[in-house]
Design a protein that fits this description.
2 copies of one chain form a homodimer. The first copy, chain A, is of the alpha/beta class and about 500 residues long. The first copy, chain A, has 3 domains: about 250 residues, FAD/NAD(P)-binding domain; about 80 residues, no CATH class; about 120 residues, Alpha-Beta Complex (Flavocytochrome C3, Chain A, domain 1). The first copy, chain A, contains 15 helices and 21 strands. In chain A, helix 1 packs parallel to helix 7, helix 1 runs parallel beside helix 15 and helix 4 packs antiparallel against helix 5. The termini of chain A are far apart. Chains A and B meet through helix 8, helix 9, strand 12 and helix 14 of A and helix 7, helix 8, strand 12 and helix 13 of B.
Chain lengths: ~500, ~500
Amino acid sequence: MSAAEKTVPTKAKKVSEIQQWDIETDVAIVGFGGAGSSAAIEAADAGVTVHIFEASSAAGGSTALSGGEVYLGGNGGTAMQRQFGFDDQSADMEKYLLMQHGPQSDEAKVAAYVDGGVAHFDWLVDKNIPFKQSFLDERVVEPMTDDCLIYSGNEKTWPEIEHCKPAPRAHVVQMAGMGAGKVLMQHLQKAVEDRGVNIHYDARALCLIIDEADSIVGIVVRIDGKELNVKAQGGVILCAGGFVMNEEMVKQYAPKLTRCNIPTGNPGDTGSGIQMGMSVGAAAINMHEGFASIPFYPPSTLTFGMIVTDKGQRFINEDAYHGRVGTALLEQNSERIYFIVDVDAYGDYEKLNFMNADVVATGDSIEELEQELKLPKSCLTHTMKLYNEFAEQGEDPMFHKQPAWLRPLEAPFVALDITPGRGAIFPYFTLGGLDTKIAGEVLKVDGTVIDGLYAAGRTSCGIPRRGSGYNSGISIGDATFFGRQAGIAAAARAKESQVSDTAA
Amino acid sequence: MSAAEKTVPTKAKKVSEIQQWDIETDVAIVGFGGAGSSAAIEAADAGVTVHIFEASSAAGGSTALSGGEVYLGGNGGTAMQRQFGFDDQSADMEKYLLMQHGPQSDEAKVAAYVDGGVAHFDWLVDKNIPFKQSFLDERVVEPMTDDCLIYSGNEKTWPEIEHCKPAPRAHVVQMAGMGAGKVLMQHLQKAVEDRGVNIHYDARALCLIIDEADSIVGIVVRIDGKELNVKAQGGVILCAGGFVMNEEMVKQYAPKLTRCNIPTGNPGDTGSGIQMGMSVGAAAINMHEGFASIPFYPPSTLTFGMIVTDKGQRFINEDAYHGRVGTALLEQNSERIYFIVDVDAYGDYEKLNFMNADVVATGDSIEELEQELKLPKSCLTHTMKLYNEFAEQGEDPMFHKQPAWLRPLEAPFVALDITPGRGAIFPYFTLGGLDTKIAGEVLKVDGTVIDGLYAAGRTSCGIPRRGSGYNSGISIGDATFFGRQAGIAAAARAKESQVSDTAA
């Protein structure tokens, strides 16, 4: 059975099938997460009526479950970056993002995102979202503290370091501990409520409504067991998340992610928004890609260690971002992957680790470790010898780990098993979605716009397009930035139609 | 700009826009290659009228440009396999194909394909397609001779060899030299012509025609500069090839293939069939995958050599199928990939090679070769030492190259540069397409069938789903086998509608 056969029908209704309109609005938004709330704020600020339909009983979406990091920079730096002396030029950030996402980058979107980054940070601050005036110069997935500015990607690792001046770009919302996304969402939710937006919880969007000219004119939602027809003069904005929670869709579209084990998102990430778009001929793109991580720091000391296959071969600079390392793990032709560390690198692993990898061998010499791991004779021994010889000189000619994380490893050694599927934590989520223009207009495969339909957040395909190039904060940055653009565009379309109605 | 913005509009027309029907048929087929001809033969044999619309001025499609290999087996073996003593059990072939294509396999399709393989071979023979009674037990991409049966995948390589009893399954159409696909197509074309099928050359399909109930009722074609409306009672079968010739679509949907350099297919492989399907809400799946090869044999002696990265590391068993090796090359974190051989393995390379890789270094010792290649000190030397130690015992504990291809390599050495983008030939084509059921019915993303629409060949997503699991002959096997199913299904639907017309 093909995956599609198991998913929920989302076939669009024709306007001729609609007996009555139960709700009329200028803009209808599906999903009350980071993208939906940003769209609602902008549309309301443009002076049009807005209804949000959220399938769950509370606002938040996956944004509320996130670390509350927003990846922004460019134009000489955000207010926060400048305060700590980072002169973040747009050319560096743009080149960096294009390197990250490779041939499938949307260059126009990247340019718009970089150009608008400074203003977007100010917009978030204006919504009373708290950012502490601080820069935390540590290797962390998220701060454990309430600090703000961090390096959250591959800015300081090879090969990016050789091409783009690094700057810390993740702006973390202020909250002690991890998971500041909920603070971010509290403030976005309040901004939405303050603007008198009509919010419907436990309201499931079922399908789009399409007119004779193939324009989207509304949406059918189910509230309290009743199907309601919503007319949306300006358009419908799909901000319903990605599809990481739809096991069949992941298997069909992003099979490499099936080896990960912690789907990262909210239960509503079932791909329903993407499916609604596809049901009216929208192009879903980049569907095979996803974020896949092995969150091996803290403790950051593990970065001094060495990651090897069951051939005893290294394959990546261990100082790369955890998402790049996780993505590379999935690509290895190897039945096991090990993290090899010495006692100093092991450090506080037992206390701090959250990747949950087991110690599977220890050795008073590398030969002993090699034997205990049942690796082919001398393969790991040689790798270690070579690594140490170069590390002694602060060099890693093979994988270009930077000098800050290079030193010879010394016996005794410890091996952690980080093979996908063997207990360690591999969070993942999807990076494919509806093809959209900068303002969120959804595109058909032939490049024409579906009139009246917008998408943002992980329902669309945005800035992040490869697991190997992901940076913490780029999803929330993308969702809120392009959510705003969609809100502005749909509001403008509503106003145009009001003018033409008046004229007629 | 998103890729979609550059493609040709394929938006479906509504039946209400159609002024008159210029052609009326039971079954309309787009594309006269392997899939289209097989569909036409079956539909004609079922006694319905058939029109084929071929965009170019001759039959053939990519099938005619292929090696004329058809990958078939199971049920104890085809007539050809049995003749040479191969008892090819369905369980082995099925397991093998599922290993090849991994989590994205369509299990139902694989089962149907294996189950119908013996009969499909007989069907081809019945169409007078010549197969010589011969088995060529050599490592070849295609026979240079007119021989028939060959091993054309990873049947005898690790890990498949440990799980599925190997059998040669590529049945190569008889013709001296490479490119027997044209002989295959000549006979299929003749079978189509013999059945009185209406064939239109230089006839470009522009868009589907859809009725009020969202059924496909026909297609618009352009012939002699005129747009003609074709009514198809039984349905439209899209056999218009894949999208390898559409650079923007490849970049958007299958970015990893952009590093290859020889798009393999016919100029009509622009994705137009896939786009027509998507325009009416069809799900396109597996769009990121493709065949990517480095055709490094002949001479097969190169298989004795060693493939290494710019870290001097091996990464694959060199006796794997050229498509698996090519796919693995694209996944390496390495700026260069080298084939390291000794004089014996180099053998007739200069005479026989068609991969076109340059000799970039030679060395009287491995240390000298390592230096000449500017590799980090001792990395290649160690790899060679270890390889030779194990090869001496007929073992390859790291990558499991089989004993037949293992022997120590001896100085002097030669290095060929097989880095993608550095001159060597990397053929590629796409493996994504419309999601279909076994009988070719095209599916929407919600799993419902698009009434009246069928697809086969590379317009659909068939048996082959991963470059790493491709076998020569699986595309032609898939296209002809599932083309037939689509022809049978559309003919049956035409007959049903005739019955209901009569009843009414």
